[in-house]
Structure formats: structure tokens, C-alpha cells
Write a structure and sequence with these properties.
4% of the residues lie in helices and 49% in strands. By secondary structure, the protein is mainly beta. A hairpin with a 5-residue loop joins strand 5 and strand 6.
Length: 114
């Protein structure tokens, strides 16, 4: 199963980015979709999740700045990131979770620097 991420890049503090993750339909319809990130020298950490019923959950560090959304017609989950800070710099990974199996994307780099 392949989760295909896109949208990372280098931006200045205060800027915005939108990450996308496309998943196979059979996965997207039933799995909880989410985003995690891993900064250099740190463990991978939770960012946000969204269920098939569009219930969302966010890490405290991104609440009010990041928005997770899903487009069921395109089997795609998005992470809109606003007011980016240098501490948001990390590799961002798309995740598809079920109690039986979990899938990860390859990761996309987000760098916030002036």
C-alpha cells in the first residue's frame, strides 16, 4: 500500500504550506488518516488525525494553526499549516491507521527558516 505525500518545502516563519497525501480508496474509506512529524534528533510525534466521519484531533503544539481535512472523492487527506514556526521544521509523514494495520508514507520535508 502506497501513501503518496506532496507539498513540503522551505518557507519563512509566518508563512503557510499545504501538505497532501493520496491513499488507495479501500484504505482511505475506513482508516483513520493522520500526519506525524520527526525533527532531527527527535522521535516521531503526532500532529493531527481525522476519521472517516471527519472527527479531528490535534497536538497542542499545532492547535489553531494547522487544519486537517479530507476529500473523499479524491481519497486525499490534507494538512493546512498556517503561521509556521521554525520549530515546525521536520519531515512530515502521512499515516493510515486501523487496529489491524498501519501504513506510512515516505515523508516530505518542511523547513521553516528565515
Amino acid at each position: 500500500v502506497q501513501l503518496v505525500e506532496s507539498g513540503g518545502g522551505l518557507v519563512q516563519p509566518g508563512a503557510s504550506l499545504r501538505l497532501s497525501c493520496a491513499a488507495p480508496g479501500r484504505i482511505f474509506k475506513v482508516y483513520v488518516m493522520g500526519w506525524y512529524r520527526q525533527a532531527p534528533g527527535k522521535q516521531r510525534e503526532f500532529v493531527a488525525t481525522i476519521t472517516s466521519g471527519r472527527i479531528t484531533n490535534y497536538a497542542d503544539s499545532v492547535k489553531g494553526r494547522f487544519t486537517i481535512a479530507r476529500d473523499n472523492a479524491k481519497n486525499t487527506v490534507y494538512l493546512q499549516m498556517n503561521s509556521l514556526k521554525p520549530e515546525d521544521t521536520a519531515v512530515y509523514y502521512c499515516n493510515a491507521y486501523s487496529p489491524v494495520k498501519t501504513y506510512w508514507g515516505q515523508g516530505t520535508q518542511v523547513t521553516v527558516s528565515s
